[in-house]
Please model this.
Amino acid sequence: MISYEEALALLRTGTVPLPRRTLPLAVAAGEVTSAAISARLSVPGFANAAMEGYVLRASATATASPAAPVRLPVAGLIAAGTAPPCTPDRAAAAGQAWEIFTGAPVPAALDAVVPVERVTRVAARVGEPPSVEITSPLRPGQNVRFAGEDFVPGATVVAAGTRLAPHHLMGLAACGIDEVSVVARPRVAVLTTGSELEQAGADLAPGRIRDANGPYLHALLPLLGAGVSTAATAADDAAELRDRLGLLARTADLVLTTGGVSAGRLDLLPAAVREIGGEVVFHKVAIRPGKPVLHARLPGGALLFGLPGNPLAVAVGMRFFVIPALRTLQGLAPEQPETAMTLEPVRGRGTLRFFAKAFADLDAAGQRRVRLLPGQESFRIAPLLQANCWAIVPEGSADLPAGSILHTLPLYPADSCPP
Ligand code: AMP
Ligand code: MG
Model:
């Protein structure tokens, strides 16, 4: 039986990113960039007013004080969306102010904006334009946003391997990007197996149970940026499993099965994988829950993960094997675990790495702490509903005293797709 780290290394080396495609920016949220994206525009594109007020030359206000205000004639008005007016020459500019609105272009000869609430406007008289009185000096550049302060053309806006969130679209749109090159979405086929499974209802015949894994996987895969290409359920029947797997392998980049993967007489999945020509990469990993997990490469290139049927084995299999594989397919970097201090002693699990349903929060001093929840058995879903993370108890640990530091991972990756 191989260790978790060995299994992870095997699945990463055997997984290559999917091909790229080009998408309009407007529909690119949740996609993963296949290359760095550079700014096409300078942002701001031109010097512009950060406030509504009067744009002038700062040097003209050097002597301004409440006792001796500087009075400047108002030469005109500059609104957002208009080209800057005929630029006054530098000499003339020093003696003028222009009324200006937020985002409106600052003429090249002017360099500061005095906010409207800091001036006194003097109405026009016959033969004279209106003017403004300024009572304190301005610094050059005051209340002006300069070209390229935020992005310069050619600068990287978003790195390769970034899942595009709304804030990335904000930056890309500002920088003049209309199309992005992204990694194709993985197509995942889901097959829940087990002759005991029912898809609906609470009126179950004796011995039958609800398929809890199917809805879980259906809800989870889109968060991971994957599309569910086909979904099916199969009985514990060798021929049925083989036929279904054969079909699913053709429509998917990744086939996910649950159930029937341990060593029992009715655990028929490993044989079905081999029958359709699948090459097993690993079967059984030194973890709990989910030890019998199987990973194979199918003819045609699809990857397969056979997860044991217990719902918690499925959750762990997804979090610690399938999510890393999907990230590699999408060109996303591996997630970095967080750390937290255990509040209580934690029992070591011998040679197995243990993935525990856990709850982490901050104590009064802001220190992150974690509590392993009661009910760690792999059939128990209820504690998962109280959990907000997985705590990882390393293999080979003796019992750990309270106050030990553990790695944790949130239930879902921080860069999950917006629902
Ligand atoms: P298996 O891996 O097939 O041996 O299943 C392990 C346990 O998980 C058994 O108790 C199954 O009844 C249960 N199980 C299998 N598949 C599912 C499922 N889709 N939803 C809920 N429980 C399941
Ligand atoms: Mg079974």
Remarks:
- Residues 311-330 form the longest helix (20 residues).
